[in-house]
Every structure is written in structure tokens, then in C-alpha cells.
From TrEMBL:
The lineage of its organism: Bacteria, Bacillati, Bacillota, Bacilli, Bacillales. It holds the Pfam family YgaP-like_TM. InterPro entries: YgaP-like_TM. It comes from Alteribacillus bidgolensis. Residues 66-88 are annotated as: Disordered. Residues 1-62 form the Inner membrane protein YgaP-like transmembrane domain. It comes from the Bacteria. This is Inner membrane protein YgaP-like transmembrane domain-containing protein.
């Protein structure tokens, strides 16, 4: 995995992730039957992991999609994805 987020972005993700994780864990100890706090804890842990590894899967998918769209546009020579529109 190649890092796809910057250092500052990683620090912000770690800080926010630890904050979310701490708050949700504190609430999880109070309300054991509520699954929402467990979901928040998992989301916070994911943000911490993204910050530590400096790799975000969502950013990777978006950049791959944009670059594929750009390559398709460069090959066809038009900005429209359907070549039949240009023939009309």
C-alpha cells in the first residue's frame, strides 16, 4: 500500500479518530444495549488506522475513478462518455 494522504491529514485523522474512540468507549460503558456507540468506536478506530498507515481506501477509489475517467476522455477526444452523442 502506497501512502495516499499527507502528513497533516494523517495527524488530523489520528486526533479525530482517538477523540471519537474515547467518547464512544466512555458512552459504551454507560449504555451497553446501544449498538450505535460500538459503531462509532469502530469508525474511530478505522480513522486512527488510516492516519497511522497514511492510506485511505475511499481516497484510493475516488482517485482511481477520476484517473480512469480522464484516461477515457483523453482516448476518445471528447468529454462525453457516450461516443454516439458526438456523432449526432
Amino acid at each position: 500500500m502506497k501512502p495516499n494522504i499527507g502528513t497533516l491529514n494523517a495527524m488530523v485523522r489520528i486526533t479525530c479518530g482517538l477523540t471519537i474512540l474515547a467518547c464512544s468507549t466512555a458512552e459504551l460503558t454507560k449504555y451497553r444495549r446501544n449498538g450505535r456507540h460500538l459503531l462509532y468506536a469502530m469508525m474511530g478506530a478505522m480513522k486512527v488506522a488510516e492516519g497511522i498507515t497514511r492510506f485511505c481506501p475511499l481516497t484510493k477509489m475516488i482517485t482511481d475513478s477520476v484517473s480512469a475517467q480522464k484516461n477515457h476522455t483523453d482516448e476518445t477526444g471528447s468529454s462525453t462518455p457516450d461516443p454516439q452523442i458526438n456523432e449526432l
